[in-house]
Amino acid sequence: MSKDNTKCTTPIIYIEQDIKFENIVTINVCKVGPLKALLSQFRIKTPIFYLNSCVRSCQIGMRWERGPTARFRIICELEDNIEPVFQKIIIKINSFVISDTFTLKTERPEYFEWATCMLPTDTKDSDSFEIHFTIEHSIPIIRRNTMNCSVKITPRKYELYERLKMMYYDKLHTDVKINVGNKEFLAHKSILSRSPVFAAMFSHEMLENKKNVVDIKEVDPNVFEILLKFLYLGEIDEIKITESTNDLLLDLMKVADIYQMEDLKSKLADVAARSINVSNVVNHLILADKYNISDLKKSSMLFIQKNHVKVKDTKSFENIIQTHPALMAEMLCYLLKE
């Protein structure tokens, strides 16, 4: 063959994109009460609750004036400064609408202006507010087709989130079964491998990897279900964890430590720090000490310092003297130093 000195023509790659913005509507209800407990405080905030991928979380702030007059404000955590479109925001007591108007600040889109409303005359101490949200937002759904060549395209963040959510809820193409107690979970090895423990299990010729079945003992199925959802979506139900009557936070932290999920441990520590009160602060301190979470430990000790009169009368404070003498001594040193 004769030598051709001309340069080769670069192959042409064709990419078709069909970007369609599909409206998604979510309806949410937040119940806050009882009224007697609310009115005893000048200002209060609800726990954080989660909505969707654009409005990642919401929180209701309330304060009281004479009348009694209630004032409400909504605080949102938005994804990438995307402003949600709230179709309706309605506050009800006894099925009676007391407010349905909110104004969004332009300079800080995550904060709503305070909305003022009068409480009905027939309200009882046991009544609760119902705050109804109907939110409409657009998520870009991107469909791609390539010809002539394979092209690696990184999907948009929302598209990826929706795919992971579909994998978690629809259980499509699962390749491993996990037996936890009397409950069975179907999952994907690639997602479970976010945990170094599962990654090692599926990377070697272990029985679990050959049979595609994993048996987990001494873990509550409800705890594992929260861990599994976090592996897929990076989300936890903060309200469920903080309002649980059992040691759900402690159990989750223990399992997160077993499966070496540092990101889950960090998120649980943040939840614990935001939910500290007189009755749980000692348990949070023990938790922080056990798993070496310095920020939570400092927050717990600072809370004890400011509320030591009430905390020292709790049962958990009495128990720590017997069960964790070294931690008790450390706490006393911190209080005396401060």
TrEMBL record:
Keywords assigned by UniProt, alphabetized: Nucleus, Ubl conjugation pathway
Occurrences of domain BTB (ranges): 174-240
Localization, UniProt: Nucleus
Coarse class of the protein's main subcellular location: nucleus
PROSITE patterns associated with the record: BTB (PS50097)
Classification via InterPro entries: BACK_BPM_SPOP, BTB/POZ_dom, SKP1/BTB/POZ_sf
Highest taxon in the source lineage: Eukaryota
CDD domains the UniProt entry points to: BTB_POZ_ZBTB_KLHL-like
GO cellular component, one term: nucleus
The keyword Nucleus appears for this protein: yes
Family: Belongs to the Tdpoz family.
Protein name according to UniProt: BTB domain-containing protein
Biological classification of the source: Eukaryota, Metazoa, Ecdysozoa, Arthropoda, Hexapoda
